[in-house]
Specification:
mainly alpha; Four Helix Bundle (Hemerythrin (Met), subunit A); globular; binds zinc ion
Amino acid sequence: MVKKRAGSKTKATDKKGKKSRWEHLKQILLKERERIMKLVDLAAQEENSFDSGVEDEVGQAESSFEREILFELSDKEKTLLENINRALRKIDEGNYGACESCGEKITDKRMEALPHTRYCMKCASLYDRG
Ligand SMILES: [Zn+2]
């Protein structure tokens, strides 16, 4: 995979504005992740009360506990969580806001609405996903 350099065209002032916008979106992403993690906690509590009494399977269950809990989440939430983590990583790496498919800049409007999105509007409609 060849990475495009987006360097020369970017003005310093634009970069600064972009960074504070990212910071804002990062907060939204962190909040959203927290919300999903709370769902995970709830699922864990249910699991605990449900499982009381089955002793011989407890040791085994504990090692794969987190994994099990993730299965409690719906596919939609799992995907969302993955995308949020990915977006947060991209913010740290500094390549946030670019479409993973075509490399085009994702519009601010779309980033605000879907801060975890991986694709620009055009590619998202092609793949039929956020
Ligand atoms: Zn694209």
